[in-house]
Amino acid sequence: MPIHEKSLIRPENLKTHEELVIDGVDVSGHWSTFIESRVVSDYNEAMEDEIAALPGGENIHRCWQCGSCTNSCTVNAINPDFNPRYWIYLIRMGMEDELLRDKDIIWQCVSCNKCTYACPRDVFPEGVMKATAHWLERKGHTPKSPSMHFDEVFTEQVIKTGKIEESRTIRRFFSRTKQGLMQPWMIEMVKRLLRNLPVGLLTRMGLATFVAPKTRGWSSAAAAMQEYIDEQHEKQEQALSS
Ligand code: SF4
Ligand code: SF4
Question: Are 92 and 132 spatial neighbours (Cβ–Cβ below 8 Å)?
């Protein structure tokens, strides 16, 4: 299927002859513009299977390139380079070098799942974006993304306590990503919380930041979750190293 978005044509592939006459017709400048073909010879045939082995990537083979995911995408609306349809195409074709050109923006998917609802083939494009960002990290193409740090902090807390405490999660996430807590948006958010939330709830949230409450009898559930995570991790390692 041809790639048709104008934004995908690279400026260096656009060629124009300043002076050109064909069969007596002057086609100089703009009239002689053509797109130079790309030659790709280093396909990574394992890439689709590797990404399909990661959580969220399972249905990538179902994509028929309709573009509904990109059309509906929140991030694409402000940055045309963020293009789930195109990346799924590259992955399925094994065009790793092409995919790596966009490696620093793939993690920016905001998980709004508009693409998931728009996709007529149940590809679950949001999951494919997460799996692709995960694959880039596991292969050493990108450092661990902020969203991956957040997922880890969140999972660790759930396994440890059986509870989700937002203030504790945010504090740990900031510490893990070496960010200061006193950021303007954070100060504004805390001010609004203080103005609008009941005192009892605020007190509980504040306490939970320092004293981690636990769900009673959580240890067997935590052990089962950890066992499942370890199993999945091992499977993924095998898929990535085969
Ligand atoms: S979930 Fe990600 S890829 Fe899907 S529409 Fe939202 S930002 Fe775009
Ligand atoms: S909406 Fe689904 S089928 Fe269509 S291009 Fe996106 S992932 Fe592929």
Answer: no
